[in-house]
Write a structure and sequence with these properties.
single chain, three-stranded antiparallel β-sheet, alpha+beta
Length: 308
């Protein structure tokens, strides 16, 4: 934890500098320092707005010019209104669908087109448990579902931009494809654990982490045949998450959704029955997988999900 050097500029903005980083806070409220904190007291009446505008940048460069917060707010709101207005009507769910689309769009990094899985890190699957992951990265699996949602509703620009991002991220060899990248396409993503943060509800640790179509089709067909042959266990009458495994994983229910097999295919029917038998709780909640023997290196017990 670093205590920044805090100063006030001639225009009243508060600057906090620590090493290479600068944080600037602009507001008409009179601010003052107290016990290593920046404080301010003010009254807001009905219909009034009091802006607080933070910005950040390198400490060794001059800060960016201040913005008009009210003009910026209206410009931003107008962009989202126009963007979401392209969504087709889907009956009584139109409002909900638009709100979901806005959320997915907000997870897209505009400069590159990379789509992060979530905007937060280390939210626990179970309060107090260690299953806390950092999804502020571009996971190819998660991004695929986001792109399907976009394209089903006619938002193809986002898909094209993401495709361009993916081509740059993969670079020259499809054999080097990773399961996740950073928003810029970076490959080296070492995980950090932040021991000084307690985590949400004391749940620690807190972590921070085209001309080829025919060839891709051939690889996909080979993979499909291989999985059907070695990824299905005849004794369990179910697909399994790894070759030779005798375990079940609820993610197998996604196989029909991604077009791997038809939902009425006998092997999918068997997989559904097996998951219902082993992973269904109270006839409505689903465990991701069986974790009681600690095979994944974590304590037994996992949060259950409501499948939709």
């Amino acid at each position: 934890m670093i205590v920044p050097w805090v100063s006030r500029a001639d225009d009243g903005a508060v600057h906090a500098i620590a090493g290479p980083e600068r944080l600037v806070l602009q507001t008409p409220v009179n601010l003052y320092g107290e016990d290593l904190k920046t404080m301010g007291e003010f009254t807001v009446g009905a219909g009034q707005s009091v802006p607080f505008v933070p910005s950040n940048g390198p400490s060794f460069k001059s800060p960016a010019a201040p913005i008009d917060p009210f003009e910026a707010l209206e410009t931003t709101a107008e962009f989202w209104r126009q963007w979401s207005s392209r969504c087709p009507e889907v009956g009584p769910w139109t409002g909900i669908v638009k709100r979901s689309l806005i959320t997915l769009k907000a997870l897209t990094y505009a400069p590159t087109g990379g789509i992060v899985a979530a905007a937060t890190t280390s939210l626990p699957e179970r309060l107090g448990g260690p299953r806390n992951w950092d999804y502020r990265f571009c996971w190819l699996r998660d991004a695929t579902f986001t792109l399907l949602a976009f394209m089903h509703l006619g938002y193809y620009d986002e898909a094209r931009t993401w495709r361009d991002w993916l081509i740059r991220a993969i670079a020259g060899s499809p054999r080097q494809v990773q399961i996740l990248y950073s928003v810029g396409g970076e490959r080296w993503l070492p995980e950090l654990v932040l021991p000084w943060l307690p985590g949400y509800e004391n749940s620690s640790p807190v972590r921070t982490e085209a001309d080829l179509r025919q060839r891709w089709r051939e690889i996909a067909d080979e993979s499909h045949a291989d999985i059907c042959q070695y990824g299905f266990d005849s004794e369990l009458n179910s697909f399994v998450p790894a070759y030779g495994s005798k375990r079940l994983d609820a993610s197998l229910l996604l196989l029909p959704l991604v077009g791997f097999l038809s939902p009425d295919e006998p092997r999918m029917h068997g997989t559904l029955l097996a998951i219902e038998e082993k992973l269904l709780i109270q006839e409505e909640f689903v465990l991701r997988y069986e974790s009681e023997d600690g095979f994944d290196g974590l304590p037994a017990g996992e949060g259950a999900f409501f499948a939709v």
